[in-house]
Amino acid sequence: MDMGLRGKKALVLASSRGLGKAVASQLALEGADVMLASRSEDKLAAVKEELLALGGGGRVEYVATDVTRKEDIAALIQTTAEQFGQIDILVNNSGGPPSGSFESLTDEDWERAFELNMLSYVRLIRGVLPHMKTNGGHIVNIASTSVKQPIPGLILSNTFRTGVFGLAKTLSQELAPYGILINTVAPGRIATDRIRELDTARAEQNGVSEDEIAEQFRKEIPLARYGEPEEFAKAVVFLLSGANTYITGASLVVDGGMVRAL
User: Name one GO biological process term (predicted).
Assistant: First the structure.
């Protein structure tokens, strides 16, 4: 299948590692021009070289960006448009908020999570719209399985990731007249640094090893294993590609069947 991505201009957030890097890699393999963004310039430079070595033929650039700063987002979008001439694809992504119970979290924790996991998505979508309204575009917001089933101990994620899905569902109607498709993809237990960090925290709380925690989760996953970042990325890239012409406002759970909710 021709994914129709060669020459498309993509902006991928939090792309120096984990799920964002995996999505950026798949886009680069398909021949898209990819703008990387995260806070670490050193990591971005290394990922740029990795993506160019894949041989997809597209350009790879990067801008060090803190998505909690609106001026950084504005500069990122301006640079992407100047470098690539247009923006066809936006992949909203951000690091997960800290774990904790309702009573353990402060106002500052809530404000930080809102800026990182909700407001940054709003600002980035608002910023790319002028570049997509003429020729259409594809937006994917990376969230969490908490959009379908709350995760114990992750009240910040449960709150703001669900808000991201509500935002995308609403925008799917507002943006449809411009040919802009927007979807939410919810990763489950994908083998990234973020999941390892959560497993470590849970292991410490329960006085057991990380391996025991991972084994408990594997028993809850019908496919009996954690997913690989590349598997997640391929699902995202389909939604971003020319092969997707009629899916918008959807939430796609990529979790090996772990979530039981309909």
Answer: bile acid metabolic process
